[in-house]
Amino acid sequence: MAAAEGVSLNHIARESTDVKRLSKFYQEMFGFEEVETPDFGELKIIWLRLPSSSLLIHLIQHSNGELAPSSSIPVKDPSHIRLGHHLCFSISNLHSFHNTLKDKGIETFETTNGNIKRVFFYDPDGNELEVFASIEDSS
């Protein structure tokens, strides 16, 4: 039996050089909604919630506007996304979503494994992202 009880994933934190810009990206691309955020003093933080779940993303901006050394460094080629360091969203409209990324000038890398199609790309701060869908669902 696990030591922790009633466990569920609460949030994922992402560092940003511009939390408003990154918030807009996650709202426009995935439908996240801004929710009430506690006052963290001088630290700028925006909390976003995915309406279809209880998952939150905490966007954190450092006072100097620079990402901490441990942050992702943007790589221009999404085929080099580190497999252990990305967020993945299941979506039902992979084809049209992929076209939206292209229309916005976002570099992507697409792959198919069995009946799963995956598209890898970066958010505006270089955080690694993946979207995937079953081939039957990838309209």
UniProtKB/TrEMBL annotation:
Residues 8-134 form the VOC domain. SUPFAM superfamilies: Glyoxalase/Bleomycin resistance protein/Dihydroxybiphenyl dioxygenase. It is an enzyme of class 5 (isomerase). InterPro entries: Glyas_Bleomycin-R_OHBP_Dase, Glyas_Fos-R_dOase_dom, VOC_core. Coiled coil: none annotated. PROSITE patterns: VOC. It holds the Pfam family Glyoxalase. This is Lactoylglutathione lyase/glyoxalase I family protein.
